[in-house]
Structure prediction request, 894 residues.
Amino acid sequence: MNGMISWIRALRRGIRALILPKRERADLDDELRFHIEMAAEGHMRRGLDREAALREARREFGGVDQVKETIRGRRRLVWVEDALRDVSTAFRSVRQRPGFSALVVVTLGVGIGANTAVFSLVNAVLLQPLPNEDGDRLVHVVQSAPGQNLPEVSFSVQEVEAYRTRSRTLESVVEFHAMTFNLIGEGEPEEVQTGVVSWNYFTAMGMEPVLGRGFTPEEEAGIGPRVLVFSHEYWTERFGRDPSVVGRRFEMNDQVHTVVGILPPAARFPAGPEVYMPVSHCPVRSAEAFETNPNARMMTVTGRMVSGMTLDDVAVEMAGIAGELASTRPDVYRPDRSGYTASAVMVKEELVREARPTLLVLMAATLFVLLIACANVANLMLTRLDRRVQEMSVRTALGAQRGRLVRQLATESFVLAGLGAGVGLLITLGGLELLASFAARFTPRAAEVGIDLPVLGFTLGAATLTGLLFGVLPALARSHEPARALREAGVRSATRKSQAVRSALVVAQIAASFVLLTGAGLLTRSFVALQSVDAGFDPADVLTARVAYPIQGRYSSWEAQDELWSTVLGELERAPGVEAAAVVNLVPLAGGGTFSQQVQIEGRPADDGQNIQVFQRVVTDDAFEALGIPLLGGRLFGPEDVRGGTRVVLVNQTFAESRFEGEDPVGQRLLSCNASGCDPQTTFTIVGVVGDVRFRGLDQEAGAEVYTSARQGGSYGTTLVLRGAAGSLPSPRIVSDIIHRLDPELPVEDVRTLEAVRGEALAPRRLTLSLMGIFAGTALIVTLVGVFGLMAFVVAERRREIAIRMVFGAEPGSVVGMITRQAGVLIAVGLALGLAASPLLARTLEALLWGVEATDAPTLLGSVVLLAVAAFVACWIPARRATAVSPATPLRSD
Prediction:
C-alpha cells in the first residue's frame, strides 16, 4: 500500500513537472538551497565563517546539477520530459543551421513526396478493397474459344440464362452490355454511354442507389413505363447533384424515360456507363431475333459468390457448365474446333489489370528516389557529425552517456524527417489531381485516389524509416569517438570507417541513379519507336467528328441512314477547304477495332477446319482518300458498287500476303461464316488491296482486315472524316452546322483532328515516360549533389596534404587528377552495380516496352556515359577549387 502511494506521488510530481516546468525547477532549487543552508549553519556553529561554511556544505553536498539529474531520473515520466527537451533542442538546432536544414528537408520532401504520391495511387487502385458492398465476392465470368484464338467471347441471351439457372457457387448472375443512345430533354441533345443490365444488377454489384431506387423484375419484363438510373458521376457533372433529377423525364430512342435512381460513387464494372436501363428497354437486346439466336453475343456476365465459396470453386463450376452447353449444342459450339470453355476472375483484378504494371514500375522508381535521397542526406549528416565530434566529445567528458547523445542526434534526424514528410505531403496534394487523371487512363478506380489514413500512415512510416537511415545509423557510427577527438586537439579528420560509409553511400546512389536513368532511357527509346511507326494513314490536315444518330430510332433502317449521309457528304464535298469526306465505323487509334468477322476463301479448304478471323471496317467510297490509306492493287469502291449489285470488299496487305501467298487476290471471293459454318449464298468479291492500318494501337499489328461499302447495305458508321487542302484544316463548325440544319436533335461529339487522335493514343506512354523522367532527373541531381558533397569533404580533409604537395612543386593538374581518380573508382563501382541490376530492370519494365529490349546496349551505354560524365564534373569542381587556393592559406590555418 505504501509503495502504491509512493508511486502515485512520484507520478503526480512527474505530471506537475511536465505541466509547470518552471515552477517545478524553482521548487527544486529552493529545496536544494535549503539543505545547503542547513548544512552551512552546522559548520558555522563549529566556528567557520559563513563563506567557508557554505563552501564546505557545497563540497559535502556534491554537484548540484548531478543531484538535480538524479532527482529527475526518479520521476516516472522523466522520459517524456527528456523527449520534449530533445525535440526543443532539435528545433533550435534546425533554426541555427537554416541552409543545412533546408537542403535536408527539401531533399527528403522530394523523396517522401514522390513515394507518397505514387503510393496514394497504389493504395487506392491495387490495395484497397472495392467500395462496393462485399466487393471481394464479385467475379467476372469469362468465356473463351482457344481453338479459334478467341481469349474472351461475349455471351448470348441463352448462355446468360444457362449460367444463371445452373450456377450454385454464384448467388446472383447478371448481364451487362453498353450502347450509346441520345438523351433529349434538357439543353442540347447529348449522346450518353448506356449500360443495359439485369434488373438486380445494382444489388448484385453492391451499389444500391443513394437516391430513388433501382429496377424491378416487372421493368425487365417490359411491364410499365420506361425508366433510367443515372451514375453518380454523370449526375454530379451534368446536373450538379440536383436531387430533383429523380422523377424527371427524358427522351431516348424516340421513347419517354423517367429517371428513378442515382447510383453511389462505387467501382463500376464494366466501366463507362453514364446511364443505365433494363434489358427490355434496349431495342437490340429485346428484339426477338436477338434473343433466339444462340450466336448473337454481346453481353458480359458478372456474379456474386455465395458466402464461403472461392474463386477456384466458381471457375471449376463455370468450366463444367460450358462443357454441358458444348455437348448439348455441338452445332453452335463445335467442340472439335473452338475448344469452348469458361472460367472466372475477380472483378477487382479485372479493374486494375492494365494499371498494375505501370503503377508497380512507378512505385519501384520512387523507392529508388527515396533511397538516393536518404543516402545523400546521410552523407550530409556524417559530414556534420564529423564537424560536431569535438562538441560530442566535450559533452561525453562532462558525463553525458553515449545513449543520451545518440537519442539527441536521432531526435534531430526525426524532426528533419518530419519536416520533410510535411513538404512531401504538400507535394502530393499539389499533384494529386494530375496523378488521378493519369491513373484514369488505366483503371476506373482512379476516382478513389486521395489522402486517407493508409496514405498518412505510409508517409509517417517513410519519415520514420528515413530518420533511421540518414540519422540514427550515422549517429551510432560516430558517437563512440570522444577520446580520439580530444586527443587530436581540434584537428578535423574523418575516420576510415566514416569515409568508407560515405563512399558506400555514394556508390549506392550512383547504382540506383543508373537504374532509374536506364529505365527512363528505355521508355524514351520505346516511345520514340512508337512515334516513328507508320500507322498506315496520313493524319495531317484531317478532321474527325462523331455524329450520334440513334440507329434504333428514326435511323434504324439503312434507307434512312443512306439518305442522311448522302445529303451530309454531298454538302461537305461542296464546302470550301474540304478535299475529301467520308463516313467510317472506326477511326484509326481512337479505341475499339476488335469487331471481328469470320470468313473463308471460296473454293479453298479451311485451314485445320478453322474459319479466318478478320477485322471488319465499314466505310464510304472516299474513306481511303480522306484517311490517306494507299491503294496497292485493284480498285477502290466506286459509283458502280450499289445496294443490290455484286457485293464487293477490299482487303489489307496482311490479309492478301498471308492468305494468297503471291497470288493476286483481286477477283477472289469470300464466304461469310460463323461458328456454325459458312453461308454459300453470302459472298463478297475482292476488288482491291489497300495498305495496312494500325486501328487498334501503334503497338498492335494490323491483322487481317476487310473493308465493306456502307452504300451496299448493312449499316453506316457514325464518324465523319474530312481531309482539308494541303496545309489547312476544315473548320470544325462545318459539321455541326450541316448536321443541325438537317436534324437539330443529332449531337455532334468528339470533334478533333486525326493528329490529336494519334497523340491521345500515345498519351498513357507519354505520361508514364514523363513521370519516370522526372524521377530519374531528380535522382541524378540528388546523386550529383552527393558526389559533389563527398568530394568537397575529401578535399577539405586533404587540404594540408594538397598544400604540401603544391609547395614542393606538384602541378595543379596532377593534384586534380589524384582526387578525380579517387572519385573515379567510386563511380566505376556504382556503375558496375547498376549494370548488375539490369536483369531486374528488364523483368520490371518488360510489359511497358515496345520495339526495344530491356537490355538495349545503346541505352545502357548512354546511361553509363551520362552518369559518368556528370559525376566526373561534380567531383572535378571541388578538386579544381582546391588547387586555386594559395598553399599558405591551409598551412597557416593548421
User: Anything to note?
Assistant: Confidence is low (pLDDT under 50) at residues 485-493. The first strand starts at residue 138 and ends at 145.
